[in-house]
Amino acid sequence: GVVFCAYATAGFLMLYLGWDLLLALTCGSMFSATDPVAVVNLLKELGASPTLTVQIQGESLLNDGSSIVLVMVASQMLPRAAATKKYGVASIFLELMRTAFGACALGMLIGMVFNAWIHLANNRFEHASG
């Protein structure tokens, strides 16, 4: 949903204001993020199930993360595209994949480091108490 809204907003900005694709996509990505605080408060007032509230909060977190990735991709491509004037759907898609998979790889690396650190700390305490 966020990607569709970002591109729809970018299309409007390109057609109506005559903006460049990446500039319009940067703004469209920022505008497409939704904040469900009012919806969550309304659900709490109406006594909706906590499961539904958590699902809506999780969906909002995913939307915000997608919007941040789109903004980062478009804003990183903007200076390079201004210098080379070469970008298109393929280059945007490749930059998006590079950013997304790079973030996943970094997260997995940090997770493995902390997992090893926790196991080392746990083993140290087990040997000291025995």
What does this protein look like?
This protein has 130 residues and is an all-alpha fold. It has helices at 2-17, 21-32, 37-46, 50-84, 89-129. The model has no long low-confidence stretch (mean pLDDT 79). Helix 1 (2-17) crosses helix 2 and helix 3 runs antiparallel to helix 4 (50-84). The protein is 88% helix and 0% strand.
Spell out the blueprint of helices and strands:
Layout (H helix, E strand, L loop, with lengths): L1 H16 L3 H12 L4 H10 L3 H35 L4 H41 L1
Helix pairs in contact: 1-2, 2-4, 3-4, 4-5
- Ends distance: 55 Å
Q: Categorize the overall geometry.
A: flat
The radius of gyration computed from the alpha-carbon positions, rounded to a whole number of angstroms, is: 21 Å
Low-confidence sequence ranges: none
Number of helices: 5
SSE order, as H and E? HHHHH
Instruction: Give the helix/strand class.
Output: mainly alpha
What's the oligomerization state? single chain
Major sheet: none
The number of strands is 0
Q: What percent of the residues sit in helical stretches (DSSP H or I)?
A: over 70%
Percent strand: under 5%
The residue-averaged pLDDT reads: 79
Brief rundown of the structure:
This protein is mainly α and 130 residues long.
Brief descriptors of the model:
130 residues; mainly alpha; 5 helices; 88% helix
